[in-house]
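Hi F.,

I've been meaning to write this up properly since the lab meeting, where we talked about keeping a consistent format for the predictions we share between groups. The idea is simple: the sequence comes first, exactly as it goes in, then the structure tokens exactly as they come out, then a line or two of notes. No screenshots and no reformatting. I'm using this chain as the first example so we have something concrete to point to.
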Amino acid sequence: MKFLFKWALRIVALAVLAIILVVVFKDTILRMVAEHQIRRETGMDVKIGRFSSGFFSPVVTIENLKLYNTPQFGGTEFLIIPELHIEFDPDALQQQKLRIKLVRFNLAELDVVKNQAGETNIVTMLAKMPKGKLAPHGIRVGGRKFEFEAIDVLNLSIGRMRFIDLKNHKNDRDVAINAENQVFNNVKTEGDVYSILFLIWLRSGGASLIKPRDIANDLLNRKPHGAHKQQLERPTNPLRTN
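Output, unedited:
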């Protein structure tokens, strides 16, 4: 009996120690998990300075995040994010819905790189990301789909954007946008996002860093697959009727 009591005390002590370790190193562990997940899904190296999350409230803060281009795009910095702060609605989460009370997103720098083959880093990153994570109007996490509802308040800051052409550096451009604490309410649709980007574009003086034609050529010049290949090889005639 005495032997069992001692072992019970040891188990309790180990459990308490495990809880203490989780409390102390929770954010460090989550930071490492987040870095691993980003590397796996983007193919890019990443460093996160600080990851903080609430124990009893769905609040996440990421500070000093840097995402690096792959070697084929020079290995330079792609994104520099001093702060990403997200506050979720806990009631909506219980119903598998994403309603975000506040997003504070500070993008200090975005570098768009075109490599020697004429491919852009943004398109390449999106092509490498696993399919099925992003579902229409939501996101899949652990096999569960969370339906996106809205962002109540978006506080957006953008420092500068750079375009780097590794084949011809004469095309390099650097635009300081300096849009700080731009507040947008009730962001729900892709149209809302496009409107926000358009306003930021106007704020930058209409200086286009990314030519839509370049992005389209990048997409079309890639080897198509499946239905996309058939669609690209045999475009439909808009005047044709069945």
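Notes:
The longest helix spans residues 2-42.
The chain has six helices and eight strands.

If this format works for you, I'll send the rest the same way.

G.
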